[in-house]
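Take a record:
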Amino acid sequence: MSEQQNIEYKQSWRDEYLKWICGFTNAQGGKIFIGIDDKENITGIEGYKKLMDDIPNKAVNHLGLVVDVNLHKKDGKHYIEIVVPVSTVPISYHGIYHYRSGSTKQELKGAALHNWLLKKSGKNWEDIPVPGATTEDLDLETIRVFLQKAISKDRIPANAVSENPETILQRLNLLSKDGELTNAAILLFGKRPYAISPTTSFKIGRFGKELSDLRFQDIIESNLLTMADKVMEKLNDRYLIRPISYKGLERMEPLEYPETALREATLNAIIHKDYSSTWVFLRVYDDRLEIWNPGELPEELTIEKLKGTHSSYPRNPNIAGAFFKAGYIESWGRGVNRIIEDSLQAGLPEPVIEEDMKGLRVTFLKDIYTEEYLRKLGLNERQLKSVFHIKEFEKITNKKYQALFKVSRETASRDLAMMVELGVIYSSGSRGAGSYFKLRK
Protein backbone atom coordinates (compact mmCIF):
# COMPACT_ATOMS: atom_id res chain seq x y z
CA MET A 1 0.00 0.00 0.00
CA SER A 2 1.64 3.24 -1.15
CA GLU A 3 2.12 6.28 1.08
CA GLN A 4 -1.14 8.14 1.64
CA GLN A 5 -3.06 10.01 4.33
CA ASN A 6 -2.71 7.19 6.87
CA ILE A 7 0.50 5.40 5.77
CA GLU A 8 4.18 6.37 5.92
CA TYR A 9 7.29 4.29 5.15
CA LYS A 10 10.79 4.84 6.56
CA GLN A 11 13.86 2.66 6.02
CA SER A 12 15.35 3.47 9.41
CA TRP A 13 14.37 5.22 12.62
CA ARG A 14 15.34 8.79 13.47
CA ASP A 15 14.05 10.72 16.45
CA GLU A 16 12.82 13.45 14.10
CA TYR A 17 10.14 10.98 12.96
CA LEU A 18 8.35 11.87 16.17
CA LYS A 19 7.15 14.83 14.07
CA TRP A 20 5.38 12.35 11.79
CA ILE A 21 3.76 10.67 14.78
CA CYS A 22 2.66 14.13 15.93
CA GLY A 23 1.23 14.86 12.46
CA PHE A 24 -0.71 11.60 12.32
CA THR A 25 -2.26 11.95 15.77
CA ASN A 26 -3.36 15.53 15.03
CA ALA A 27 -5.06 14.40 11.80
CA GLN A 28 -6.74 11.04 11.24
CA GLY A 29 -4.22 8.75 12.90
CA GLY A 30 -2.33 6.17 10.87
CA LYS A 31 0.60 3.79 10.65
CA ILE A 32 4.32 4.37 10.22
CA PHE A 33 6.42 1.42 9.04
CA ILE A 34 10.14 1.38 9.86
CA GLY A 35 12.26 -0.91 7.65
CA ILE A 36 10.25 -0.46 4.42
CA ASP A 37 11.21 1.88 1.57
CA ASP A 38 8.94 4.15 -0.48
CA LYS A 39 8.42 1.40 -3.05
CA GLU A 40 7.11 -0.88 -0.29
CA ASN A 41 10.17 -3.13 -0.38
CA ILE A 42 11.08 -4.57 3.01
CA THR A 43 14.67 -3.48 3.66
CA GLY A 44 14.79 -4.65 7.28
CA ILE A 45 15.99 -2.77 10.31
CA GLU A 46 18.91 -3.28 12.71
CA GLY A 47 18.57 -2.86 16.46
CA TYR A 48 14.87 -3.54 16.39
CA LYS A 49 14.81 -4.89 19.95
CA LYS A 50 16.08 -1.58 21.36
CA LEU A 51 13.69 0.40 19.15
CA MET A 52 10.76 -1.61 20.48
CA ASP A 53 11.45 0.05 23.85
CA ASP A 54 12.76 3.43 22.67
CA ILE A 55 9.95 4.43 20.28
CA PRO A 56 7.00 4.08 22.72
CA ASN A 57 9.01 5.73 25.52
CA LYS A 58 9.98 8.69 23.32
CA ALA A 59 6.39 9.08 22.12
CA VAL A 60 5.26 9.37 25.76
CA ASN A 61 8.14 11.63 26.88
CA HIS A 62 8.10 14.06 23.91
CA LEU A 63 4.45 13.94 22.87
CA GLY A 64 2.55 12.64 25.89
CA LEU A 65 1.13 10.04 23.52
CA VAL A 66 0.77 6.27 23.83
CA VAL A 67 1.36 4.43 20.54
CA ASP A 68 1.29 0.74 19.71
CA VAL A 69 4.60 -0.60 18.38
CA ASN A 70 4.49 -4.00 16.68
CA LEU A 71 7.38 -6.11 15.37
CA HIS A 72 6.93 -8.02 12.09
CA LYS A 73 9.17 -10.36 10.11
CA LYS A 74 9.05 -11.29 6.45
CA ASP A 75 11.61 -13.08 4.27
CA GLY A 76 13.99 -13.09 7.22
CA LYS A 77 13.84 -9.29 7.62
CA HIS A 78 12.36 -7.44 10.60
CA TYR A 79 10.32 -4.28 10.34
CA ILE A 80 8.35 -2.21 12.84
CA GLU A 81 4.76 -0.99 12.65
CA ILE A 82 3.86 2.11 14.71
CA VAL A 83 0.10 2.49 15.13
CA VAL A 84 -0.76 6.13 15.88
CA PRO A 85 -4.21 6.89 17.34
CA VAL A 86 -6.20 10.07 16.76
CA SER A 87 -5.76 12.48 19.65
CA THR A 88 -8.79 14.33 20.99
CA VAL A 89 -6.52 17.18 22.16
CA PRO A 90 -3.86 19.13 20.21
CA ILE A 91 -0.40 17.53 20.36
CA SER A 92 2.81 19.49 19.77
CA TYR A 93 6.42 18.39 19.32
CA HIS A 94 8.81 20.84 20.97
CA GLY A 95 6.11 23.53 20.78
CA ILE A 96 5.33 23.01 17.09
CA TYR A 97 2.05 21.51 15.87
CA HIS A 98 2.41 19.10 12.96
CA TYR A 99 -0.41 17.82 10.79
CA ARG A 100 -0.68 15.01 8.24
CA SER A 101 -2.34 16.11 4.99
CA GLY A 102 -2.40 13.67 2.08
CA SER A 103 1.07 12.11 1.97
CA THR A 104 2.84 15.16 3.41
CA LYS A 105 3.54 16.55 6.87
CA GLN A 106 2.83 20.22 7.49
CA GLU A 107 3.68 22.62 10.29
CA LEU A 108 0.56 24.50 11.35
CA LYS A 109 1.10 28.25 11.73
CA GLY A 110 -0.85 31.50 11.84
CA ALA A 111 -4.50 31.37 10.85
CA ALA A 112 -4.31 27.67 9.96
CA LEU A 113 -3.09 26.85 13.49
CA HIS A 114 -5.67 29.14 15.09
CA ASN A 115 -8.56 27.56 13.20
CA TRP A 116 -7.31 24.03 13.83
CA LEU A 117 -6.99 24.66 17.58
CA LEU A 118 -10.56 26.00 17.58
CA LYS A 119 -11.76 22.94 15.68
CA LYS A 120 -10.00 20.61 18.12
CA SER A 121 -11.78 22.36 20.97
CA GLY A 122 -15.10 21.83 19.18
CA LYS A 123 -15.49 25.49 18.14
CA ASN A 124 -15.44 27.58 14.98
CA TRP A 125 -14.17 31.13 14.57
CA GLU A 126 -17.76 32.21 13.93
CA ASP A 127 -18.79 30.99 17.42
CA ILE A 128 -16.34 33.16 19.38
CA PRO A 129 -18.13 35.86 21.46
CA VAL A 130 -17.40 39.52 20.64
CA PRO A 131 -16.46 41.31 23.88
CA GLY A 132 -18.71 44.27 24.63
CA ALA A 133 -20.95 43.83 21.57
CA THR A 134 -24.65 44.60 22.08
CA THR A 135 -27.77 44.79 19.95
CA GLU A 136 -26.90 48.47 19.41
CA ASP A 137 -24.18 47.18 17.08
CA LEU A 138 -26.74 45.45 14.85
CA ASP A 139 -28.40 46.89 11.76
CA LEU A 140 -32.14 46.58 12.37
CA GLU A 141 -33.00 47.07 8.69
CA THR A 142 -30.90 44.02 7.78
CA ILE A 143 -32.72 42.01 10.44
CA ARG A 144 -36.09 43.21 9.12
CA VAL A 145 -35.26 42.24 5.52
CA PHE A 146 -33.89 38.89 6.69
CA LEU A 147 -37.12 38.11 8.57
CA GLN A 148 -39.20 39.09 5.57
CA LYS A 149 -37.24 36.78 3.28
CA ALA A 150 -37.05 33.87 5.75
CA ILE A 151 -40.78 33.99 6.54
CA SER A 152 -41.69 34.16 2.84
CA LYS A 153 -39.59 31.02 2.30
CA ASP A 154 -41.34 29.38 5.26
CA ARG A 155 -38.00 28.73 6.90
CA ILE A 156 -38.79 30.44 10.18
CA PRO A 157 -42.21 30.90 11.86
CA ALA A 158 -44.28 33.93 10.88
CA ASN A 159 -44.51 35.06 14.54
CA ALA A 160 -40.73 35.67 14.53
CA VAL A 161 -41.46 39.12 13.09
CA SER A 162 -42.62 40.27 16.54
CA GLU A 163 -39.61 38.87 18.41
CA ASN A 164 -36.78 40.99 19.79
CA PRO A 165 -33.29 40.80 18.18
CA GLU A 166 -31.87 38.61 20.98
CA THR A 167 -34.53 35.94 20.43
CA ILE A 168 -33.96 36.00 16.66
CA LEU A 169 -30.22 35.62 17.13
CA GLN A 170 -30.81 32.78 19.55
CA ARG A 171 -32.96 31.04 16.93
CA LEU A 172 -30.04 31.32 14.51
CA ASN A 173 -27.49 30.02 17.05
CA LEU A 174 -25.71 33.39 16.99
CA LEU A 175 -25.45 33.85 20.75
CA SER A 176 -22.92 32.21 23.06
CA LYS A 177 -24.00 30.16 26.07
CA ASP A 178 -23.71 33.33 28.13
CA GLY A 179 -25.92 35.30 25.74
CA GLU A 180 -23.07 37.24 24.07
CA LEU A 181 -23.15 38.13 20.38
CA THR A 182 -20.81 35.93 18.36
CA ASN A 183 -18.54 36.80 15.45
CA ALA A 184 -21.14 35.33 13.09
CA ALA A 185 -23.87 37.59 14.53
CA ILE A 186 -21.82 40.74 13.88
CA LEU A 187 -20.69 39.59 10.43
CA LEU A 188 -24.24 38.80 9.34
CA PHE A 189 -26.16 41.69 10.89
CA GLY A 190 -23.61 44.18 12.21
CA LYS A 191 -23.41 47.87 11.31
CA ARG A 192 -19.59 47.69 11.18
CA PRO A 193 -18.52 44.02 10.80
CA TYR A 194 -15.07 45.09 9.60
CA ALA A 195 -14.41 46.36 13.15
CA ILE A 196 -14.02 42.75 14.37
CA SER A 197 -12.58 41.37 11.14
CA PRO A 198 -10.84 43.97 8.93
CA THR A 199 -10.66 41.49 6.05
CA THR A 200 -14.45 41.03 5.95
CA SER A 201 -14.54 43.49 3.04
CA PHE A 202 -14.95 42.20 -0.53
CA LYS A 203 -12.37 43.55 -3.02
CA ILE A 204 -13.16 44.01 -6.72
CA GLY A 205 -10.62 45.04 -9.34
CA ARG A 206 -10.65 45.64 -13.11
CA PHE A 207 -7.48 44.52 -14.86
CA GLY A 208 -6.27 44.41 -18.44
CA LYS A 209 -4.68 41.17 -19.56
CA GLU A 210 -2.39 40.75 -16.56
CA LEU A 211 -2.50 41.18 -12.79
CA SER A 212 0.02 44.04 -13.03
CA ASP A 213 -2.41 46.08 -15.19
CA LEU A 214 -4.90 47.35 -12.58
CA ARG A 215 -7.34 49.84 -14.13
CA PHE A 216 -9.61 50.63 -11.14
CA GLN A 217 -10.96 48.97 -8.00
CA ASP A 218 -13.68 49.04 -5.34
CA ILE A 219 -14.08 47.69 -1.82
CA ILE A 220 -17.49 46.49 -0.65
CA GLU A 221 -17.83 47.07 3.10
CA SER A 222 -21.09 45.77 4.52
CA ASN A 223 -22.51 42.99 6.62
CA LEU A 224 -22.63 39.61 4.90
CA LEU A 225 -26.37 39.45 4.28
CA THR A 226 -26.27 42.57 2.10
CA MET A 227 -22.83 41.96 0.58
CA ALA A 228 -23.78 39.71 -2.35
CA ASP A 229 -26.37 42.22 -3.60
CA LYS A 230 -23.86 45.08 -3.34
CA VAL A 231 -21.22 43.08 -5.22
CA MET A 232 -23.66 42.29 -8.04
CA GLU A 233 -24.79 45.92 -8.22
CA LYS A 234 -21.19 47.07 -8.54
CA LEU A 235 -20.45 44.50 -11.26
CA ASN A 236 -23.54 45.64 -13.18
CA ASP A 237 -22.79 49.33 -12.83
CA ARG A 238 -19.06 49.43 -13.44
CA TYR A 239 -17.34 46.20 -14.38
CA LEU A 240 -19.33 44.10 -16.82
CA ILE A 241 -20.97 44.86 -20.14
CA ARG A 242 -24.31 43.72 -21.57
CA PRO A 243 -23.86 42.69 -25.21
CA ILE A 244 -27.04 43.38 -27.19
CA SER A 245 -28.60 40.59 -29.23
CA TYR A 246 -32.08 39.74 -30.48
CA LYS A 247 -34.28 36.69 -30.11
CA GLY A 248 -36.80 37.32 -32.85
CA LEU A 249 -37.99 40.86 -32.12
CA GLU A 250 -37.05 40.66 -28.45
CA ARG A 251 -33.99 42.66 -27.44
CA MET A 252 -31.65 40.56 -25.25
CA GLU A 253 -29.11 42.18 -22.91
CA PRO A 254 -27.68 39.52 -20.58
CA LEU A 255 -24.40 40.15 -18.75
CA GLU A 256 -21.30 38.81 -20.47
CA TYR A 257 -21.23 36.17 -17.71
CA PRO A 258 -24.47 34.57 -16.42
CA GLU A 259 -25.75 36.52 -13.41
CA THR A 260 -27.07 33.42 -11.65
CA ALA A 261 -23.66 31.73 -11.80
CA LEU A 262 -21.84 34.90 -10.69
CA ARG A 263 -24.20 35.35 -7.74
CA GLU A 264 -23.80 31.71 -6.72
CA ALA A 265 -19.99 31.97 -6.86
CA THR A 266 -20.12 35.22 -4.89
CA LEU A 267 -22.36 33.66 -2.24
CA ASN A 268 -20.09 30.61 -1.99
CA ALA A 269 -17.06 32.84 -1.49
CA ILE A 270 -18.82 34.81 1.26
CA ILE A 271 -20.28 31.78 3.06
CA HIS A 272 -17.22 29.51 2.95
CA LYS A 273 -14.55 32.17 3.50
CA ASP A 274 -12.01 31.77 6.29
CA TYR A 275 -12.77 34.99 8.18
CA SER A 276 -9.58 34.81 10.23
CA SER A 277 -7.60 35.16 6.98
CA THR A 278 -7.46 37.67 4.11
CA TRP A 279 -10.07 39.26 1.81
CA VAL A 280 -12.20 37.81 -0.96
CA PHE A 281 -10.83 39.03 -4.31
CA LEU A 282 -12.91 39.36 -7.48
CA ARG A 283 -10.75 40.20 -10.48
CA VAL A 284 -12.23 41.14 -13.85
CA TYR A 285 -9.83 40.73 -16.79
CA ASP A 286 -10.30 41.32 -20.50
CA ASP A 287 -10.94 37.63 -21.11
CA ARG A 288 -11.99 36.18 -17.74
CA LEU A 289 -13.40 36.82 -14.29
CA GLU A 290 -11.91 35.26 -11.15
CA ILE A 291 -13.35 34.96 -7.64
CA TRP A 292 -10.95 33.75 -4.94
CA ASN A 293 -11.72 33.25 -1.27
CA PRO A 294 -9.34 32.13 1.49
CA GLY A 295 -10.05 28.77 3.07
CA GLU A 296 -9.00 25.30 1.96
CA LEU A 297 -11.51 22.60 1.11
CA PRO A 298 -12.49 20.38 4.03
CA GLU A 299 -10.73 17.01 4.15
CA GLU A 300 -13.93 15.28 3.04
CA LEU A 301 -14.01 17.08 -0.34
CA THR A 302 -11.93 17.36 -3.50
CA ILE A 303 -12.50 19.46 -6.63
CA GLU A 304 -13.90 16.42 -8.42
CA LYS A 305 -16.27 15.64 -5.55
CA LEU A 306 -17.45 19.26 -5.61
CA LYS A 307 -18.58 18.77 -9.20
CA GLY A 308 -20.58 15.65 -8.35
CA THR A 309 -23.22 14.78 -5.79
CA HIS A 310 -21.83 15.53 -2.35
CA SER A 311 -22.83 16.51 1.14
CA SER A 312 -22.22 20.03 2.36
CA TYR A 313 -19.39 20.75 4.79
CA PRO A 314 -19.72 24.50 5.44
CA ARG A 315 -16.75 26.17 7.08
CA ASN A 316 -19.17 28.51 8.87
CA PRO A 317 -22.33 26.48 9.60
CA ASN A 318 -24.23 29.29 11.34
CA ILE A 319 -23.45 31.81 8.61
CA ALA A 320 -24.51 29.23 6.00
CA GLY A 321 -27.68 28.53 8.01
CA ALA A 322 -28.70 32.19 7.99
CA PHE A 323 -28.18 32.44 4.21
CA PHE A 324 -30.25 29.27 3.74
CA LYS A 325 -33.11 30.55 5.88
CA ALA A 326 -33.14 33.84 3.97
CA GLY A 327 -33.40 31.90 0.69
CA TYR A 328 -30.07 33.09 -0.72
CA ILE A 329 -29.07 29.45 -1.17
CA GLU A 330 -31.68 26.84 -1.98
CA SER A 331 -29.80 23.73 -0.92
CA TRP A 332 -26.42 22.89 0.52
CA GLY A 333 -23.98 20.99 -1.66
CA ARG A 334 -25.36 22.19 -5.04
CA GLY A 335 -23.59 25.53 -5.48
CA VAL A 336 -20.77 24.39 -7.76
CA ASN A 337 -23.13 22.31 -9.89
CA ARG A 338 -25.35 25.35 -10.47
CA ILE A 339 -22.35 27.50 -11.43
CA ILE A 340 -21.28 24.95 -14.04
CA GLU A 341 -24.79 24.31 -15.38
CA ASP A 342 -25.66 28.00 -15.71
CA SER A 343 -22.38 28.77 -17.49
CA LEU A 344 -22.83 25.95 -19.99
CA GLN A 345 -26.43 27.00 -20.66
CA ALA A 346 -25.17 30.51 -21.41
CA GLY A 347 -22.87 29.07 -24.08
CA LEU A 348 -19.69 29.63 -22.05
CA PRO A 349 -16.99 27.08 -21.18
CA GLU A 350 -17.17 25.23 -17.89
CA PRO A 351 -15.65 27.49 -15.21
CA VAL A 352 -12.24 26.45 -13.90
CA ILE A 353 -12.38 25.55 -10.20
CA GLU A 354 -9.08 25.07 -8.41
CA GLU A 355 -7.38 25.25 -5.06
CA ASP A 356 -4.66 27.89 -4.86
CA MET A 357 -2.80 29.70 -2.07
CA LYS A 358 -4.83 27.95 0.65
CA GLY A 359 -8.07 29.09 -0.95
CA LEU A 360 -10.53 28.30 -3.72
CA ARG A 361 -10.67 30.07 -7.08
CA VAL A 362 -13.53 30.02 -9.61
CA THR A 363 -12.59 31.35 -13.05
CA PHE A 364 -15.27 32.26 -15.59
CA LEU A 365 -14.04 32.30 -19.20
CA LYS A 366 -15.56 34.34 -22.01
CA ASP A 367 -14.82 31.63 -24.55
CA ILE A 368 -12.97 28.35 -24.91
CA TYR A 369 -10.16 29.89 -26.92
CA THR A 370 -7.51 29.91 -24.21
CA GLU A 371 -3.85 29.41 -25.08
CA GLU A 372 -3.91 25.92 -23.53
CA TYR A 373 -6.92 24.85 -25.60
CA LEU A 374 -5.51 26.27 -28.85
CA ARG A 375 -2.16 24.59 -28.40
CA LYS A 376 -3.91 21.25 -27.89
CA LEU A 377 -5.50 21.75 -31.33
CA GLY A 378 -2.02 22.02 -32.83
CA LEU A 379 -2.08 25.69 -33.83
CA ASN A 380 1.25 27.27 -34.62
CA GLU A 381 2.43 30.56 -33.10
CA ARG A 382 1.03 32.65 -35.96
CA GLN A 383 -2.38 31.05 -35.69
CA LEU A 384 -2.35 31.39 -31.93
CA LYS A 385 -1.62 35.12 -32.12
CA SER A 386 -4.23 35.59 -34.83
CA VAL A 387 -6.93 34.23 -32.49
CA PHE A 388 -5.97 36.79 -29.85
CA HIS A 389 -6.02 39.46 -32.57
CA ILE A 390 -9.59 38.47 -33.48
CA LYS A 391 -10.58 38.54 -29.82
CA GLU A 392 -9.37 42.13 -29.59
CA PHE A 393 -10.48 43.44 -33.01
CA GLU A 394 -13.41 41.05 -33.75
CA LYS A 395 -12.11 39.85 -37.13
CA ILE A 396 -9.08 39.37 -39.37
CA THR A 397 -8.55 39.44 -43.13
CA ASN A 398 -6.09 37.45 -45.22
CA LYS A 399 -4.24 40.67 -45.99
CA LYS A 400 -4.01 41.60 -42.31
CA TYR A 401 -2.74 38.09 -41.50
CA GLN A 402 0.02 38.53 -44.10
CA ALA A 403 1.02 41.89 -42.66
CA LEU A 404 1.00 40.80 -39.03
CA PHE A 405 3.20 37.76 -39.55
CA LYS A 406 5.12 38.76 -42.71
CA VAL A 407 4.07 35.70 -44.68
CA SER A 408 2.91 35.13 -48.25
CA ARG A 409 -0.74 35.02 -49.30
CA GLU A 410 -0.44 31.27 -49.82
CA THR A 411 0.84 30.70 -46.26
CA ALA A 412 -1.85 32.97 -44.81
CA SER A 413 -4.55 31.13 -46.77
CA ARG A 414 -3.22 27.75 -45.62
CA ASP A 415 -3.11 28.82 -41.96
CA LEU A 416 -6.60 30.30 -42.06
CA ALA A 417 -8.06 27.30 -43.91
CA MET A 418 -6.67 24.98 -41.23
CA MET A 419 -8.32 27.07 -38.50
CA VAL A 420 -11.63 26.98 -40.38
CA GLU A 421 -11.35 23.19 -40.66
CA LEU A 422 -10.68 22.90 -36.91
CA GLY A 423 -13.80 24.95 -36.21
CA VAL A 424 -11.94 27.82 -34.55
CA ILE A 425 -12.93 30.50 -37.08
CA TYR A 426 -15.41 30.87 -39.92
CA SER A 427 -15.30 32.81 -43.17
CA SER A 428 -17.65 35.66 -44.04
CA GLY A 429 -18.36 33.77 -47.24
CA SER A 430 -17.54 36.67 -49.54
CA ARG A 431 -14.48 36.78 -51.77
CA GLY A 432 -11.88 39.42 -52.42
CA ALA A 433 -11.00 42.44 -50.33
CA GLY A 434 -14.25 42.36 -48.35
CA SER A 435 -13.79 38.85 -46.96
CA TYR A 436 -12.87 38.31 -43.31
CA PHE A 437 -12.74 35.67 -40.57
CA LYS A 438 -14.32 35.64 -37.10
CA LEU A 439 -14.21 33.31 -34.14
CA ARG A 440 -16.81 30.56 -34.15
CA LYS A 441 -18.99 30.80 -31.04
Summary: The mean pLDDT is 90. The first helix runs from residue 18 to 26. The first strand starts at residue 7 and ends at 10.
